Known about the structure:
By secondary structure, this protein is of the alpha+beta class. Helix content is 56%, strand content 13%. It contains 18 helices and 11 strands. Strand 7 (343-347) and strand 8 form a beta hairpin.
Amino acid sequence: IAAELRSRFPTKQSVDLHFRTESMKENVVSSVKPTIRALMGAVAFVLLIACANVANLLLVRVSARGREMAVRAAIGGSQWALVRQLLAESLVLAGAGGLLGVALAYVGIRVMLALAPADLPRMTAVSLDPMVLGFAVGACVLSAVIFGLIPALRASRPNLIDSLRAGGRGTIGGHGTLLRQAVVMAEVALSFVLLIGCGLMIRSAVALQHVDPGFEARGLLTMRLGNLRARSDTEAMAKIATIRERLAAVPGVRAVTAAAVLPFESRPFNGRWGTSAALGDPTKFRQAQFHIVMPGYFETMRGRLIAGRTFGPADDVPNAKTIVIDDRVAAMAFPNESPIGKHLLARISTPEPETFEVVGVIAHQRHTTLVGDEKESIYFANGAQGAGADAWIVRTDGDPTRLEGPVRSALVQLDPTILVTDMRPMTAYLDRVMAPTRFAMALIALFAGIAAALAAIGLYGVLSSLVRQRGTEIGVRMAFGAEPSGIFRMIVGQGLRLSAIGVGVGLVASLLLTRAMTKLLVDVTPTDPVTYAAMIVVFFG
């Protein structure tokens, strides 16, 4: 089909028209897949950190039970019997944690549903179903076996002479200390990666708040008006004028306008445009977003007029050939010269392109996304294109939701058959666009906080066992005049050294792994130095 169209139409040949097939599932989830994958990665990291922490604490516990293990081995306990006992203890621990986790998940899912963006596919189907529970049980058992096995193997081969000679005291070997320190450094590295991801998402959320959409969304009330029956374009225009007058008369309303498609409501119509050069060479046509708006649209939206004028009553009549373009079209079509009074070709209502006069240039307004680039825009007057604008916009003072009742009443008094739908403030559309980033930020921040807390607990566990191990040494140091502050620096310094090594490994891992978050980030790179520096300070703190 594409080959046939390319052979028949030069424009399609020049743009290399092709078709791509994909499953509906891929189409539905494509926009949220990066978010889901990032969150799954965060979950996996938290699980690894938790398992490493438990393994670390089990190593400490096993070290303290060295004499017990030696006695069991001395009276005939086999290595397998000791491993089996310690693995059973790990399974009990994991089972208790798993049950508590399911209870927390039951509550957490309801919180997550309240925070989730409306366009996240199948969000209403999220629940503790058998598949999820089976996955959780499998993760618990596998974690208990894998991370309980190392302490169990170490404890199953006790040094009988040293352990029994130690009397009632537990023994903590040098190799065990090194292993626990290595586990803590791994925890620090994993949690630091999550902290970097959290910092990048926070920077993105802040950047989203400061993206200029090209209009002032606060104070705008939007709605769709349907069932405006008219026998001709003239009657339709008269009815539209009456509606506009009635809405403008509502106390608190400052301006009224309409458009065919609201910003961020849905994908606008893309049309073909070009300069006069495109008449002789169809390959020079371009695509842009075409918008049909009522006079007063730019004033009501408070868009920035760069040159010329906006639409007036003379432009809002059938077959008027005037357009307003944004600064991107102006830069492409008329670089380094004024576009006012110039002409462009556009195909919007006829099979062949028509010639339109440019009467104004406005700053680009975003209509599909707050992130990245989008197509340039060309605006046509509503009356010139058959009066199809049915998305009405009311500019108010203060909170626009206060005028929902008065606006509905005014429309009902005018014509009870008018259908009023989708009445909401314009900020609701902006919130919907920002929702996925906020949602991902909230969850990744939660996971990062848990990860940092777990890493801190693991570090505390290692340092506390180190203090117990070196208790006699510390006493001797103080007996020979060591100050408490010196002892404090020695212990904290060792913790900082472990953290520094972990952070160093985490830095390298972050530089590699955060590239997968590129599609989630706004105005910040995955290697943003400010974020990295801030997270290093936070983590060491």
